[in-house]
Amino acid sequence: MLTSAELMRAGPVMAVLTLEAAADAVPVARALLAGGIRALEVTLRTPEALRAIEALSGVDGALAGAGTVLCVDDAARAAAAGARFLVSPGFRPALADAARRLALPWLPGVATASEIMAAREAGFDDLKFFPAETSGGAAAVAAFAGPFPMARFCPTGGITQANAPRYLALANVACVGGSWLAPRDLVARRDWAEIEARARAAAALARG
User: Distance between terminal CA atoms of the chain?
Assistant: First the structure.
């Protein structure tokens, strides 16, 4: 079974995908994989998201999961579609229980010390820091290392190729989440070459 630590160490960047058409899922994944990005978070923000996860579950080498998991039903549907991990913008005890029942790694979202404490009390040390850029940025993540030395973060929200190195230089950052690798306009244009190029540049980013 995939663990949260293995997921966060799959590469310096986890691709965050919002797919309008499930038919685009496989070519997007192949472009990202060709560039060296394996972890693919499909946000549950479109009607096609679950079908996209189903398609990605058959792509060799891809670690496909569900993002924007807001409730227990979201988690169950994502698991049924073949998701290998779950990501949420916040923390809820009910989702923690659901992730354990489903035997799937879950990255709960946190933005404050109180939220980190709640997640850690529930047994979660691997966390999504969200929304990163508007919640204090890399400086905030660095400050959390003092009181929470066991916590590891995947900052997401406002992360770009330009600012990702500031986060990845931190010892308590395992990876970052990025939607810049395959944004909607590139997917709509089916510009797989540009997505692959962005993935290659992202995969080359160094971690602290």
Answer: 26
